[in-house]
Design goal:
Distance between the termini: 30 Å
Number of helices: 1
Helix content: under 10%
CATH architecture: Distorted Sandwich
Number of domains: 1
Radius of gyration: 13 Å
Number of strands: 9
Structural class: mainly beta
Order of helices and strands: HEEEEEEEEE
Length: 110
């Protein structure tokens, strides 16, 4: 928690409405249930420059189903979204700075 507080004032996952020209203002925050057709979004506000790494961990298999992160170190508000990259199931979206886990966001895809 100390590392989280050092680097973030906000961090979470949400859903973006479909469309190519969607504004980050349309983000639905703190979503825990998604459809396979949804766009999942990692969002937050970084207060001390850092580079994030993320994984989507499949709780049924105990394996990483998807890996990602920010392409370069950054500071300030951010929101990055993509089509749902994992199938139906239960997952944890884990966020790291280096090897330090700073956030775990459980979610389900139905």
């Amino acid at each position: 928690m100390a590392t989280y507080n050092k680097y973030f004032s906000d961090l979470g996952i949400g859903r973006m409405p479909p469309g190519e020209n969607v504004s980050p203002l349309a983000l639905e925050k703190n979503v825990t249930v998604f459809k396979t057709t949804d766009q999942i979004c990692l969002y937050g506000n970084i207060i001390l420059e850092c580079q994030l790494r993320s994984t989507m961990y499949d709780t049924a298999t105990g394996k990483v189903a998807e890996e990602g992160g920010l392409p370069k170190p950054m500071k300030g508000g951010f929101a990055g979204w993509e089509p749902m990259p994992v199938p139906v199931g239960k997952y944890e979206y884990k966020v790291y700075i280096g090897d330090i886990l700073v956030g775990i966001f459980p979610f389900e895809v139905r």
